[in-house]
Structure formats: structure tokens, C-alpha cells
Amino acid sequence: MSKLQQIIGFCSVICVLVSCTTSGSFAPVSDRYNPAERTPPYYIVSAGDTLFSIAWRYGFELQGLASANSLRPPYTIYPGQAILLQESSKSLVSKNASTNAVATSAPTPKSNNVKKERTTRPTAKGTAPLSSVNEGWQWPLNGPVVRPFVASGQEHKGIDIKGKMGEPVYASRSGEVVYAGSGLVGYGNLLILKHSDRFLSAYGHNRRIKVREGEKVKAGQLIAEVGDSGTDSVKLHFEVRIDGKPVDPLRLLPRR
Q1: Residue-wise pLDDT tens digits, 4-54
Q2: Residue 242 resides in a domain
Q3: Most buried among 18, 57, 159, 202, by the most CB within 10 A?
Q4: Cα–Cα distance list, 23 to 19, 26, 28, 29, 122 (Å)
């Protein structure tokens, strides 16, 4: 093989490699909500976890999850502890108790002897239709909805509202801050408000959170700034959950 043929062959290989790496094969950045396709039987607690954040991640109602694990207020959990991921129909807890006990480095209790109780999934019994509970909700951000709610699978459990970096985010309804942090994959800097024993709202991808856990807020109060944490564009991810289950926020928010 002549020297010229060797050079031509080498250039051909380089062209193929460049073509492969510029053909759009890079994995796009995307949001990941409730990343587990299937709920595992147990969750092993990490530092900074709360029982509330675990319940939110897997779509459980807090009191049912606490009851299944024989946990009482203030729901103290520890790194390395195994949390049984199911809900119990037996009420062991007070609905008015604090939900913000954070996992610390304290000695781990006997976590391998999690008591398994007869469990039931939440039912529609006693559940009022959304049309009867949609009063008092406000838009957390003035902007177009750029991604809708998807009820099936794990795709998208809320709506995305387009905004500008640093734009104010407002509480959609009066309530208590029960989570403020970045420990849930796919949400970035996340804020969760508890409005009642049944109703929760969440605000994700914030640049900055302006309130603290345990703080009481009023509807329309400034609670965060729009950002792009945990995602690839500037927007607010907004969720509403009833009894731990996601519902379409557009069915609650006033029509524009």
C-alpha cells in the first residue's frame, strides 16, 4: 500500500468517527419524576431523608406509610433504616403531627424487624370530586403551560409553566412548608406545601427557595424564584396531590 493510500484510508476513518459523534446521538437532558418504574419492597434511608420525602417519591399517603412501619410522631428515621414501602389501613399516627423529622447520624434502630401488617391501597371512599374542592387555588406563576399532566405510568405528574430566571413563585394556596430541598431526583430545588391532611402542592426547579420547613404561608405569598435546577430549561414544575396521588393541577387552578 502506497503512502498516499494510507493517508486516504486514515482520513476516511476520521470522517466516520466525526460523523458518529455529531449525529445527534447524545442523550438529551430531561426531567425524571418518580424515577422508580416499580416500587421496591423497601427503601433504605439516607442522611437528609424524611418520611415525608419518601412518601412523596413513591406516591404514598404519609399516615398510611407511617402506620405500615409502626412509626409515630415525629416520625424519626435513621440512615440505613429499612422503610417498608406500603400503606397500612391501621391508624397509628396523629394527622396533626409534624412531618419533618429528618434522618440523622443517630444510632440506627432495629430496622430489620419491620412489622408487616395487612395493607390496603387508598380508595375513593370519602373522596370528594375535584369540582367540589377547587376553590381557593391560585396560579403559582404567570406563564404558559409548556408541558401537561400525564396520568399514566411515570411520565409527568404535574405541569410545567414557562418563566424567566429569578421570576417570583407564589404559594398556590395557604399551607405549611413540609419540604424544602434538593433530595428528590428530577425536581431540582423543590418546595412542598401541605394545605390539609389530604392536599399537597409542589414547586420544582427553583433557583432559590425563600421559605423554611415548618413555616406557615398564605396563598399568593412569595415562596421561591424560578430557575432551571434539575432540568434543561427555565420553568416551574407544579404538582398537586390528593391523598398522596397526583391530580391534574389544571382541574383545580382558575381558568385564564
Answers
A1: 455 444 444 334 333 433 444 333 334 445 444 478 999 999 998 889 889
A2: yes
A3: 202
A4: 6, 8, 13, 16, 47
Contact 140, 161 (CB under 8 A): yes
pLDDT tops 60 at residue 178: yes
List the domain range (segments joined by +) for residue 220: 132-251
Q: What separation in angstroms does the CA of 30 have from each of 113, 162, 180?
A: 38, 15, 22
Q: Taking 70 as the threshold, does the pLDDT of residue 206 lie above it? A: yes
Beta bridge partners of 119: 88
Assess whether 76 and 168 both reside in one domain: no
Instruction: From 67, 93, 120, give the residue that closes a domain.
Output: 120
CATH number (domain holding residue 151): 2.70.70.10
Q: Report the sign of the C-alpha dihedral through residues 9, 10, 11, 17, in that order.
A: positive
Quick check: is 12 in a domain?
no
Q: Which phi and psi angles does 190 have, rounded to 5°? A: -115, 140
Is residue 20 in some structural domain? Answer: no
Strands (E), the chain: 42-44, 82-84, 145-147, 159-162, 168-170, 175-181, 189-194, 199-209, 216-217, 222-226, 235-242, 245-247
Beta bridge partners of 179: 192
Helix (H) or strand (E) holding 13: helix 3-21
- Segment 89-104 shows an average pLDDT of 52
pTM for this entry: 0.71
pLDDT at 68 over 70: yes
Q: Are residues 90 and 139 in the same domain?
A: no
